[in-house]
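So, can you check?
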Amino acid sequence: MSVNIALSRLFALLGALTLFACPMPAMAMPGKPVATCVTRARPGDTPARLFAHTARFDCKGPQNAYGSGDFWILSQTLGPLPKGAATVRFASTWQHGVALYILYADGHIRRTGFDSRTAGRALMLGATFQQIVPPRQAPPTRLLWHVRGSLNLRGIVNGPLVGNYTDSARYELAMAALYAAFAGMCIALLIYNLALWAALRQAFQPAYCLMVLCLLGYAFSSSGLLGQITAIDNNDRMRLNYLLLAAAATAAVTFARTFFERRVFDGWLRPASTAVALGVLATASAFALLSPRFAVAINLAVNLSYLLLIGLVGAVLWRAWRVRSNHLWIFAIAWGAPVALCSVRVLAAMNVIGWHWWIDQSTLLAMALEASLSSFGVAYRIRLLSVERDVAREQEIAARLLAATDPLTGLLNRRAFLEQAIGREGDQQLVIADIDHFKAVNETIGHDGGDEVLRRVARALVSVAPPGALVARFGGEEFALLVPAASGFDADRALDAMRAERMPFDLTVTASIGTCNGPLVRETDWKALYRCADRALFEAKAAGRDRVRDAARLYSAA
């Protein structure tokens, strides 16, 4: 898995570098811009009549001021054209059909065109249409488009250019490299995050993968590649664009909700984010299902829903700042530029800003920038998760140690001692030590001094305990040591070690020890072994203290 993740990161980085290393001027559509004039289509209109009588055309007002319907778009005089086979390119918009008429210097008119069902053969990468100008000895002087069934939401014929076929082919190749780099980056990010999700199971990872998948689908559709491959109706392709972009936006909201700490979306922000995401989906679905009916009103609703989405991002960042989110800065970096570009795109869609080729392509750039920067955000989030898990693991270990040890001496407590002792194979030797007259020790040097005596007795027992032995403080002044009976441990060593310890204020402290051997497989064995060692301890106390008594030797001699 680590190799796959490393390769995925490498491909994502290479894809991002390819996307942003492309010379921007070279990526613009090649050709000479063409100024246009517009008029509504009337019964009886013919290309020859319109070429001859141009007074009815409006050359100053915006095209989208005319509403939907059928139109004639007339170019200004073309002037000298680039050498080679001439091409005409213009942006894809919603329309039922386009007929392009070319007027040549000899007065001849030629026609070419397509309808929405056959638009795939004219559709190029970047969602632009390209028409080849039929060659003649006389040069073309003017163009006339007859557009049927235009929704005219952002224009009728946007960004027309006249160029040559060679430059157009180079542009197509550059666009193919751009989209391929973006697709490769998305696929690498999907592999990377799915591999991590299999290990980490974080909720934000499948949401992020869904978002990247939707962005990949949107790029496939909006680029025009879907139309080229499947010959789908161009208007249906645009319906799909709306749905995929809305799905990506909804997945982005879900990603944000799972990426940030839960407290960021507490209160009104959680239902508000749900409402905004549903609004984006609902308006996009309405456009896909109902267009061209009510298209103007629905498109306005779509644009407003995206404005609300942009406002939601601002509210999320503000709340994250208020609650001191650990993920605010990386989210702001990753989403700052995409939100800005999205704002420009929405303003263009609402005709506040005029159409421009780069604005039309800004969605791809925003997606590429977001995907590449968000990958670092996800990596940073995973790094935080790793740190959190390490801290939690350390805390868990510390808690277990605290639960298993005596806080004063650092030895095992009774519960932990029994958990590790019961179930050992073979006979075991249990050694129980009890400090003599400990109450008098406390009265003489105080409880702090008594605590220090307990620590030094514990240190003495640990110093003589063989490897694998269990040493515990059972409570008060009683200690226990457990070793395999076959180890040959001599309890007198423990007593000697305690005598050798220098006690506080050079106080003389003694202890009595009782030992017993026996099995320790079950809890009943423990009770029997403890009673046996405790009897031996009682015998040591009765015999004058400061001595060891072994139950096995004691009762065999009796």
